[in-house]
Design goal:
The relative contact order is 0.26. The chain has two helices and three strands, in the order βαββα. The protein has one domain (13-78): Transposase IS200-like (Alpha-Beta Plaits), CATH 3.30.70. It has helices at 30-47, 71-78; strands at residues 13-19, 50-56, 60-66.
């Protein structure tokens, strides 16, 4: 089932959650987490969005971010 279209925020601030397929783990060890954080910071620099916070869990990630242009483009750059 496809997800519903994202509702445009008037503030530009979004809580983004990335999950593993079928609840599978995204991160198997600290190296996986380190690589993800490097991608996240690189995407932040290149995409120009503001990152207010993040939380890495084994099978999902929470991001609190403010878009500069299109949030979907930013997410594509960091999706594990």
């Amino acid at each position: 089932m496809a997800r519903q279209a994202r509702v445009k925020s008037s503030t530009g601030i979004y809580h983004i959650m990335l999950r593993g397929i079928d609840g599978r783990n995204l991160f198997l060890d600290n190296e996986d987490r380190r690589v993800f954080i490097e991608k996240l910071l690189s995407a932040k620099t290149n995409g120009g969005f503001k990152l207010y916070g993040y939380c890495l869990m084994d099978n999902h990630v929470h991001l609190l971010m403010k878009e500069s242009e299109d949030i979907g483009t930013s997410i594509k750059g960091i999706n594990p």
